């Protein structure tokens, strides 16, 4: 029979790290989450196009105490951080056969070689 050690010191539980929050077991913000995820799907994961839905979802979580209340501006939703224009990379180099690093000639020097 295995012996049990009851003399071990008290265990200390650390609080969750920032960004880790409880699951929404009561589905209080499920509709907001679904709207955001549907937007991501429609926009091919271009999150900047679903910014307001993301903001609404986080606000819902804060209102229902599923995460700590924080200023949304400090979480990246301020007017200054808003993306107004993006340019999508067209992968034209890859279509023409470009392979990254292949153009390097000569002896390589560095901390890996």
Protein architecture, described:
The structure is a single chain. The chain is an all-alpha fold and 113 residues long. The chain has helices at 30-42, 51-63, 92-95. α1 runs antiparallel to α2. The N and C termini lie far apart (55 Å). The mean pLDDT is 82.
Into which percent range does the helicity of residues fall? Answer: 25-40%
Structural Rg? 24 Å
Shape: extended
Structural class designation: mainly alpha
Question: Biggest sheet: strands, sense, closure?
Answer: none
Span of the ends, CA to CA: 55 Å
Count the E strands: 0
The quaternary state of the protein chains shown equals single chain
Write the layout of secondary structure elements.
Elements: H1 30-42, H2 51-63, H3 92-95
């Amino acid at each position: 029979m295995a012996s049990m050690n009851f003399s071990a010191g008290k265990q200390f539980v650390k609080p969750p790290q920032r960004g880790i929050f409880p699951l929404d077991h009561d589905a209080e913000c499920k509709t907001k989450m679904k709207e955001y995820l549907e937007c991501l799907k429609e926009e091919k994961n271009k999150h900047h196009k679903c910014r307001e839905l993301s903001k609404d979802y986080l606000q819902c979580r804060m209102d229902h105490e599923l995460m700590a209340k924080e200023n949304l501006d400090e979480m990246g939703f301020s007017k200054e951080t808003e993306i107004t224009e993006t340019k999508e990379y067209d992968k034209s180099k890859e279509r023409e056969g470009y392979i990254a690093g292949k153009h390097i000639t000569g002896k390589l020097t560095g901390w890996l070689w």
